[in-house]
Amino acid sequence: MVNFKKARERMVEAQVMARGVQDERVLEAMRKVPRHLFVDEALRDQAYSDHPLPIAENQTISQPFIVGLMTESLQLKGGEKVLEIGTGSGYQAAVLAELAGRVFSIERFPDLGYRANATLRKLGYENVIIRVGDGSLGWPDDAPFDGIIVTAGTPQIPQPLIDQLVPGGRLIVPVGDRTAQDLILVERAPEGVRKTNLGGVRFVNLVGKWGWKE
Ligand code: SAH
């Protein structure tokens, strides 16, 4: 029987902090969220290991360091409205829920969306709303957002997501081909948009109007 709390502390120290994530609020959120409850029972013992893990529909839950890096890039202070594209297991949404005011998350596969919703409810996260649909179009009804995080790889930055950022808002998105991408941080300033490359990653595909066609 793994001591999950210990495993989580070790994960934060050896994987997330060791590679440079410094935001103490992000580290604390990752020490708190029970990542093992977002994966299949058979994979629980691997939940805190240094790699992505399979979830249903051939999708994956990201490596812990990547969750830390992407979350930190949004610079959340508390109270923000955040949009996530690609709910998957719901783990990233839970980490965001610890740090922001309200989290909106969109998933393409209904069964993943329902399952993530059930997990988040069971854990008591009441500030996360999940919707099923094409997240590359954003969530116009509740826009604009202070932060947007895309957890699937796309050939281009979906324009609706840039349009749905507040001035000063931040969008983090993996952009590239089907197998390898760069993490691009987009900051929307009054004078225009600034893009920074945070390095190479490998995500499953964003499938939708602004992503890949299946
Ligand atoms: N953030 C998730 C992992 C995401 S894996 C977690 O913490 O577990 C990427 C997810 O994006 C997959 O579940 C995939 O089905 C979803 N996805 C792909 N294209 C999408 C789209 N256009 N809109 C919404 N979700 C999409």
Name of the level-1 CATH class: Alpha Beta
CATH superfamily grouping: Vaccinia Virus protein VP39
Low-confidence stretches: none
Work out the count of structural domains. 1
Largest sheet strand order? 5-4-3-6-7-8-9
Proportion of strand residues: 25-35%
User: Helix coverage percent of residues?
Assistant: 25-40%
Question: What would the keywords be for this entry?
Answer:
alpha/beta, binds S-adenosyl-L-homocysteine, 214 residues, 28% helix, Rossmann fold, globular
How would you describe the overall organization of this protein?
The chain is α/β, with parallel strands linked by helices. It has one domain (4-201): Rossmann fold. It contains six helices and nine strands; from the N terminus they run ααββαβαβαββαβββ. The protein has helices at 4-17, 24-32, 64-73, 91-99, 110-122, 159-163; strands spanning 53-54, 60-61, 81-85, 102-107, 128-132, 145-150, 165-176, 181-189, 192-201. The strands form two sheets. Strands 5-4-3-6-7-8-9 form a seven-stranded mixed sheet. A hairpin with a 5-residue loop joins β1 and β2 (60-61). α1 (4-17) crosses α3 (64-73) and α2 (24-32) crosses α4 (91-99). The longest helix has 14 residues, at 4-17. It is globular. The chain starts with a helix and ends in a 13-residue tail after the last strand. Bound molecules: S-adenosyl-L-homocysteine. S-adenosyl-L-homocysteine is lined by residues 57, 59-62, 85-86, 88-89, 91-92, 106-109, 112, 134-136, 151-152, 204, 206-208, 211.
